[in-house]
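In this section we walk through a basic example: taking a raw amino acid sequence and producing a predicted 3D structure, encoded as discrete structure tokens. The instruction is simple. Fold the sequence below.
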Amino acid sequence: MLCLVILCLAGAWLTTIAMAAPDGNELFNTNFTDGGTDAWKVEDFSLSLNGDKLRGQQVGTVTWGKFWRYFPYNQDYRYLQITLGSIEDTSNDISAINTNTGGYGLGRLFTGINTFDLKAQKFTGQTGIFALCFMQVRPAGTPTGSWADYKNIVASKIPVNGLTITLLKNNVEVIDGQAQVGDKIQFRYYAPGPLSSKELELKIMALPKMQEISLSNQKLILKDEGNNVYSATIAIDENATNCPFTAESKTFLSGMVKVNNDFVYGTAPFYLDLKTKNAPAYSTQLAGTPFILEFRKKWVAAVKGVNLAQGKKVVFSRKPTYPLTAKGETDEWDLTDGVLSNNLQEHIWFNSEAVGWYLSDGAEEGVNVLIDLGKAEEVKKLVFRCLGGIPPGTDMAFPRQFDVYVSRDGETFYPAASMMKLQPGERNFSDFKKNYYLEEQNIAYVYPFELDVNAEARYVGFTFYGTTGSVFADELAVIQGKSEASSFNKAYNNAGEKFYTSGIVVKPRSNTTLGLIEGISAPTTIQINDMRNGKEKERATQIVMELPAGINLVKPVPVSVTPVRRNGLEYNKFVIQKNSAGVCKNAVNNLFIEKEKNSAPNAKAYFYAECEGIPVIESSLPITIVKVPEFSPLKRLHSSLAWMGEDYGLNWPDFFVNWRKLGFNAVSSFPRYWSDATKDKYQQFLAEAKKLSFKVLMNESPDRMAEGAKDDSEVFSQIPGEKNRNLCPSYRGAEYQKEMARIYKNISNAKPDYIFWDVECYYNGASEAARCIRCSQAWKESGKDMGAFLKDLGVGFNGDLYRQAERYAEENNVKIPIVASYDRHASIPVYDFIDDFNLLYPRYFKYSQPSLYVSGNSQNVHDAIRAEYRILKNHDILPWLSAGTYGEFEPYKIEQMVLESFLNGATGVTYYWYADFDSALDYYYHAKAIAEIAPYEDLIADGVVLEDKGSNDKMTYSVVRKGEEMLLLVGNYSRTGEETTFIVPFAKVKQVKDLRSGQEIKPAQELKLKVPKGDIVLLWIKG
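The resulting token sequence is shown next.
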């Protein structure tokens, strides 16, 4: 790189600019911060350094301000790319201008990479100098302009990661002028390297009004034309939007593509003069960018119809207190006033039209929202416009869960809809019905979440749980529907419950029954929703559980125990938590409740909080006591709860005894969290597990090198003009080597039999690899395309990890631990561009590990495991299941999911995570499944999975066979008719046994079965 120093005659200040070599594509590449704030001249403008960005803001009495600087110029100029970071509010018009004599405006600037064609520009005046100016115009009536972060400027012959727009008249390029019906416009995106997709969606807008337009009926899709260029040529026809050119109205074109985490904009160097009969399809001035407009349009489409909540008062269980949104004290009406925030950049936390909870307001523990529609109405859906995207410097993420309840009388509410947020590893399960996934990469946007209700209601209750303590929203709509669908009012088939907006609610997280397992300790979780506001929080509280005599809380030791009578029966009142002041904890975990003697039949358990001046809200649940049959521990199949720290086991009464009774044969460890103070304790725990024939499973996430690293650390992507915290996939420096040494140390400390990697840190770095200097150099040297290069990096990375396990085994003369990695599996082999299962199995991964956090959907488990088996044709499958991640479900479905795993080819199951086992019944149904298959372990381990089906094709059939012996699982998950006939593939059937009831069934080759709706039948058949 060369450096050019220019002396500005007008201001006599120096600037240093990084110059490219004469034969290179780039003419210069410079940060806005080069030379500091003194390198720029300002007029009615304020500049300050903001890390690697220059923060600018219009000030002064006039409504516009500017700052400018000279740059080198030569005749090879064609494209100028300007990268902006965050903009506080795009209602402030921010633009770039060429102020050379005869020059003119380049165009508007947006957050992202803005590309301008300079061929039509005039560069006269001072030879070799380009006068580049940035102007901001604030709306009249505002005291100062909003701030914007300016990042980088690049001049080049061909843009990199840039979008260009070219006018063609009679198929000949026209530098400037006016685009008219009959002309063509060519859009070209120059990718920094190979992309995973062969097509990119293009969005276009007319500026300066940010008006959505059409050029024709042709879809705006850029297609790969080779050499990392994506293009589309659009012929303008009579379907175009009317945009006539007049002296007063000069409209030009802007385009946008979103590639990985980048928003890339292109501005046309020509005007539009489209004279058609088609008025704009959407109103103007509603959004600051095409990206934001997309979600405002979604809102308009989602709320089409009658909004029953319009103008209705909203009651909150937790008062929104964020000062900027609470300004004017209108929060009770802001969500239903029908007015979206006027911040066109969607930074709604600045606007009083929105409502907000921030940090300590408790939004992550749940906020109940209640709307009285005034009379019973037929409701189609609820729509909630909520902020997410994690804009820079914030924790403003989309909520982790939404729940909708309906009521006719305001007393009893019925759950009508629920939707959970997914993590990137589960994005494929997103349907925006029960689960959703949205990318959140340092950009604020507001999404309209739609939850189907389909019920008659006067009262609508809505609960959201923040992913963090920060939740911001600006509108909520309840849309009228019709009772024509057969599923209308289905919500009222569910169990009714109370919906509170004040007080303290205490109840088990599993809210249908309090489960106890005869002779086995297993934990229960109590959920607390403390809805006190203001000074109420200062009052002392205690959390109480009342249990029938003979059922006791054995751990933790209760604060106090008092005998009481309830409904004529003997009870004990256990105070399980006592607080002098402040909001109660949102949950009490690890309550070990045991039956010590027979209690009164049909007795209930009661839960409540006591606080002076606060009415007691009492919850009650029936008590269910179950018993797990005795069975021999699994020896060949695997059963573990992988995401369970050592402290949970140490806290569990008689842990190893109970763990074996519950069907687990492995104990988990997290040596990455050990300290010098805890190491000995945890090692003794694992040593005891091994003495008792448990396997030790180590969970490791080899991404710790990012923790504590500075923003400019070498471990992150090396992108000119940018600082980020995305781990670079090609980095192999000192911190990487330290990470490998740390992992080797952890393996040596834990002495595991299994290692399950959990690597979810390379997606962003791999997405931007073509822009990273280090990756680009290595990629070019590899001679491969980008996809193959990244997969090679994955092989190298996983090979380095595996070598730590090999080294441990060699130095200790033990077997190499069995290694697998979360969500790396055969049916979707490529993970985050880096890991290709086909290249890593079986050398570095012993098992295929699909992630199946499917909210109890046993059909999904069946389909996923069967797909893996069809590819692998063996039993090297060990899925991750869950007892409640992404949605609580009835515990009985755990039995179904475990059985579907083993009977479709899995060699084991593991779970994420301990806290989701919040009821003893979760453990019970896992143990029940293991008890049912334990006597047939060899059959499952050595058998072949068959594709046989019964006569009812709406049922699900799972068959594993070894010789003249087989297991048959039939599931009626679709709740179809209950009869089916299954033809056993044996010449003669000698014995049939129902493994769930223990009953013998009359042997027959043609088995007529009855499978209740939602239930299963599990048979052992001997031929």
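Looking at the output, two observations stand out. Residues 82 and 153 are 5 Å apart (CA to CA). The radius of gyration is 32 Å. In the next section we compare this with other chains.
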